[in-house]
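ok trying this again, last paste got cut off
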Amino acid sequence: MNKKQLFIGAALSMSLSMASQFAFSAVTAPADIKAKGQLTFCSDLENPPAEGMAEDGKTPSGVAVDIMNALGPLMGVKTHIDNYQFSGIFAALDTGKCDLVMASLGKTPERAERYGLIDYWRVKSGLLVTKGNPLKFHTFEDLSGRRVAALLGSRNETVVKQFSDQLVKRASPA
């Protein structure tokens, strides 16, 4: 985590946490962002309604996109949003292709070691099943022996793999 990311993350956190009580106020942009005149985000625009694309297929849209679009002007610069596959989003940040990542991602100990993570909302994971849940899935254990899909590189992928490993280990003779 570098100082620029920490500063911007702190500004984002303060702005969002105070938004319900106060009007947004300007935040001084770090010198390198001010010099280039824009704050660049990497996001996975495949997760509506948080991050997605408008009907034109070109314009980013969603709740998180609205937040991204508000932050640049708060710093006196433009906002630019680049669309990346989730599995490559941290590599894009690491190689300087963006200043910040804003995507629907889980906060893991490994990510927290490398990046300044800001909680700006909380979500829960669940199982998406056929209407009426005819196979009666209620827990991860109920998925044993079934094909399961999860977003590559996501926290859900990690959780599914962990449960799978536990179930295989339990089923294996000692």
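PB: full thing came through this time. Residues 3-22 have pLDDT under 50 and may be disordered.
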